[in-house]
Amino acid sequence: MARFIERHPVWALIVIIAVAVLAWLVFAIWPPGLEAAIGRKRVFLNAVLNGITLGGLYFLVASGFTLIFGLMRNVNLAHGSLYLFGGYVGYAVSTWTGSWILSFIVAFVAVALVGVILQLAVFRRMEGQDLRQTMVTIGLSIVFADLMLWVFGGDFYQVQTPTWLIGPVQLPLLTAIKSSGEPVYLQYPLVRLVIFAASVVIGIAMWLALNRTRIGMIVRAGVDDRDILAATGVRIQLVFVLVFALGAGLAGIAGVVGGTFQSLSPGEDTRFLLASLVVVIVGGMGSIPGAALGAVIIGLAEQLGSVYIPTYAIVVTFLIMVLVLALRPQGLLARR
Amino acid sequence: MDSVAQRLSVVGAGAALELRGVTRLFGALAALTDVTITVRPGERRAILGSNGAGKTTLFNCITGDFPPSSGTIRFFGEDITQFPPYERIRRGLRRTYQISALFPGLTVQDNVYLACRGVSRGRFSFLRPGQNDALMHATETLVQAVHLTGVKDQRVAELAHGQQRQLEIALALAGAPRFILFDEPAAGLSPTERRELIEILTSLPAHIGYIIIEHDMDVALRVVESVTMMHNGRIFKEGPPREIESDPEVQELYLGGGHE
Amino acid sequence: MSLLQSTQFRPDPSTSTTRRALLRAWPEFQNPVAWLVALILVIMPLIANGFFLIEIFATTLILGIIALSLMFLAGYGGMVSLMQLTIAGFAGYMVAVFGMSGNANISLGWPWWLATPMALALATLFGTLGGALAVRTEGIYTIMITLAIGAAFYYFTNQNWAIFNGHTGINTVATPHFWGVDWRSDIAFYYVTLGVAAICYFAVQYVSRAPFGLALQGVRDNSRRMAALGFNPNAHRIAAYAFAAFIAALGGVLQVWNYRQISPGSVSVGACIDVLIIAVVGGITRPIGPFVGALIFVLLRTFALDVLIKLGLDGNRFRLLIGLGFLAIVFWSSDGVIGLWERWRRRNTSSTQRSGGGRHG
After folding, report:
1. Cβ separation of C147 and A274 shorter than 8 Å?
2. In this complex, do C228 and B95 lie within 8 Å of one another by their Cβ atoms?
3. Does the predicted interface ipTM exceed a cut of 0.90?
4. What's the rounded Cα separation, in Å, for the pair C25 and B120?
5. pTM
6. From the CB of residue A183, how many other CB atoms can be counted at a distance below 10 Å?
7. Are B156 and B107 within 8 A, CB to CB?
8. Which residues pair with B228 in a beta bridge?
């Protein structure tokens, strides 16, 4: 952090100002002129919170993608299919058993198993041929998409939110002051906050696992230099399978989250694949903190964009990607 | 632009290549430390040193494959430190690679043709060369000069090691080289091929200078007039071949333990 | 230099050299199969009815042109770009926006001879800028960035109503009429696509042996070495994107004339990937590959339904079939169907005669 400020004082200043402006917009009571110019504060706060919580979902999907790429140099373009599959499994479990929590566990295990099978049966045979692996993931994404269409059809599904999470909660964020002088606080769906908190916990757990455990050290060493990893005599294939299982499982969990937040239907696989791509291009390939930063940036850009410039929202997301590629092609937080 | 370059080359005509305080870091590791070298036009020099002495890194800094972390590089008086590799090559600098860096999917002739095309105009030409294309003639001549006419239509992947080394040299001779960096051109060659190499090097026109990295003292000392000895990324000794060869410190370092 | 000039260059005076050079440059000329295929393509309107002419052959040629642009980048440049269909679609949209269509509130109503060059120029610019972005990184990143560009364009066309008319797209796009010919009538349109496809095919074949194409292959094999020969590798890559974008744009213009409408569905991510599948299944090492791949793809898409139902299977599983076929090709042949066919032919010839000229090393 201190080194970043030292080396890029201008960028540090821009970031600090942007954060300060955002903080002011979130906490201050807006003067009437501002409300007249860009609309009500409640709308803005909702968009920000939606963006951050959507960022949490994007992080869940993209962290698995980036982990798999970082260690195995496998650009898994079937990652969106794993997401959608996880969602469908979660939907089936939750309607069958009525348990929301159980649907996460089953989705994680089921999709992780798919990941294990893929790594053992397919990708292990073509190690080092990154283009061919990517082609295979493209083929798989087509096959998976059609199989899921076959089984689940083209309908929309939504995973039922458990009753204890339904309904809004009042946040200590002022949206306005009524003429009577009574403060108005923001109401926000509890389920989104809980899910966001859960994705933060998962992110921190992953960070700790990568930085504080032996297997995490091995994985990180492998991300930095695969040859070193092979030379240390670690059972590298086992590490690969575990990482693939974890990455796929995370996509599965994300599928259930997405099915609760939004809905599941054919085409969602592509949407979340694109989100993962953009998040890791922006954040930096192979970097977990990068995925977190990229996810929040993209989530915010998407939600704020769709509120304030609805027909050009995607352009904002895209311009962020272009800007990062132009100025820092390896991504914001990637080393190299 | 051209006139500026020419004027500069007249001003700095004293040196073909001038390195001042060139340092290259890889992370915390210094591969080159404060290297200062001046080479006259037409001068032929060998760089000796054990593995890891920084010889190839030095070449990479000169050609711009990796830019130096600090220091300046002048080529015929012009400061080329910030230039991308291709700009340096277009000014008459050439190099060969320690491990043959050729285009295995293309034929011998196409490889040489590319080298000729790279230092002339029309690099983006959409027109195929005709029978009387000047560069085709130049290509033909170069292929003959390195004794590869018999295999000119073969893909490089099918060539023997010695032939690939010869092709490396042909690529460095394309166009109008003013200074060439040879990175272990004799590596893996048979005695006959070594003799051919020495012949090619000694018969280069007098105005073309070069630096050669060569472990084989017999080859190196027959084709150069001065020697620079490197150790641990620094210049260790400079002088005429005989002097360096008989220097006790050099013998200790190079002929003694350093030859792993 | 004295050494080099001492060995004199002696050009072969005989005409046979010229002939050999010609045959080396255009291998099709000595291949009887190529002549036969060309003949069949030219007399096709005598054989095939309107349905086959347009739905099968013109569609194949158009998809082949778009896939050819991908083949050029991937095969000669080593850059697998998934945005080629996006460029084609962009050109199609521009034809619809600048030219005439049923959506009078959007279309500017320019005549076709003004709208088409405009569309080609803009789409080429679009592809060049996308390429300039993609070459900021190398290798497998290309596929991700170009896919992201393609997907972003798809979502953008869905969201934007001012230019792209949202998810309904632009309908009843006008097609050229001049010299008393309706160029969208079956036979005329077939010959237009055949002509454009032939030009694109021979252009790619020609450029691959021209300095630009050779240099591009050099960049593909070893870009660092190319820089050490005086080439600017990224400039070559971007120029390749520009050339490929122009080819893709031609395909896109033909496509919008073919369907007379364009909508986000025409530039969906699935369609982008279909172009990759076509090129890979056909073979990405030679320009004929994409056309072979396109023919297979179009035949499957048109007839898979009937065949699957006849076999007592679910007729809607066309995509499953495509996906599995693609996987099979990726697993067994890095050179697509063309590669498989050549390997099969070589095995047949080598069993009859031993190929001579063994090389050392």
Report:
1. yes
2. yes
3. no
4. 23
5. 0.83
6. 11
7. yes
8. B47, B238
CB contact under 8 A, A325 and C273: no
Alpha-carbon gap, residue B168 to B162, rounded angstroms:
10
B214-to-A286, B35, B184, B196, C90 alpha-carbon distances in Å: 41, 19, 5, 15, 56
Q: Domains along chain B?
A: 2-92+177-257 (3.40.50.300), 102-174 (no CATH)
Instruction: Please state, in angstroms and rounded to a whole number, the distance separating the CA atoms of residues B185 and B200.
Output: 11
Q: Which residues of A touch C326 (CB under 8 A)?
A: 135, 138-139, 142
Burial class (CB in 10 A: 0-12, 13-18, 19+), B64: buried
Q: How close, in Å, is residue C12 to chain A by CA atoms? A: 44
H-helix segments, chain A? 2-7, 9-27, 32-38, 41-72, 79-97, 100-121, 130-152, 190-212, 214-224, 226-231, 236-261, 268-283, 288-308, 313-327
Return per-residue pLDDT of chain C as tens, 361 residues: 333 333 333 444 444 555 666 666 666 677 777 888 888 877 777 787 877 888 888 999 999 999 999 999 998 988 999 999 999 999 999 998 888 877 778 777 788 888 899 999 999 999 999 999 888 887 778 888 898 889 889 988 888 888 888 888 887 777 787 887 777 777 788 889 999 999 999 999 889 888 898 899 988 888 888 888 888 999 999 999 999 999 999 999 999 989 888 889 889 888 998 999 999 888 888 898 899 999 988 988 888 778 877 877 776 777 888 888 888 888 887 788 888 888 888 887 766 654 444 334 3
**DSSP 8-state class, residue C176:** -
Which of A131, A143, A312 lies nearest to residue C323, judging by beta carbons? A143
SS3 A302: helix
Task: At A14, list the tokens.
Answer: 């821009």
Beta-carbon separation of A285 and C270 below 8 A: no
Nearest to A258 by CA among A188, A195, A187, A167: A195
Residues of A in contact with C156 (CB under 8 A): 312, 314-315, 318
Tokens of A184: 């108005």
Q: Are C62 and C248 in contact (CB under 8 A)?
A: no
Which residue in chain B has the smallest CA separation from C75?
A: B105
Tokens of A10: 């201008």
Comparing CA positions, the residue from A300, A306, A305, A280 lying closest to residue A291 is A280
- Contact between C294 and C300 under an 8 Å Cβ cutoff? The reply is no
Contact between C7 and B145 using a beta-carbon 8 Å cutoff: yes
Q: Which two tokens stand for residue A5?
A: 């400020």
Beta bridge partners of A264: A157
E strand or H helix that includes residue C299? helix C288-310
Domain residue limits, chain C: 44-268
Listed as own residue / partner, the contacts of C5-14 with beta carbons closer than 8 Å and 24 or more positions apart are: C5/B141, C7/B141, C7/B144, C7/B145, C9/B137, C9/B140, C9/B141, C9/B144, C11/B131, C11/B132, C11/B137
For residues C69 and C251, the answer to whether their CB atoms sit within 8 Å is yes
Q: How many CA atoms lie within 13 A of B11 on its CB side?
A: 11
What is the rounded distance in angstroms from the CA atom of residue B130 to the CA atom of residue C22? 11
Cα–Cα–Cα angle for C331, C145, A278, rounded to 5 degrees: 110
Distance CA(C315)–CA(A312), nearest Å, equals 39
Cβ atoms A159, A260 nearer than 8 A: yes
Interface of B with C in 197-226 (CB under 8 A): 200, 203-205, 208
* DSSP element (H, E) containing C158: helix C141-159
Q: Are strands B179-183 and B93-95 parallel, antiparallel or unpaired?
A: parallel
- Closest Cα partner for C194 from C178, C180, C183, C205? C183
Nearest CA to B148 out of B161, B168, B167 is that of B167
Closest Cα partner for C235 from C255, C212, C253, C258?
C212
Three-state secondary structure call for residue C48:
coil
Q: Is A309 on the interface with C (CB under 8 A)?
A: no
Give every CB contact of residue A130 below 8 A, 6+ residues apart in sequence. A73, A74, A75, C139, C140
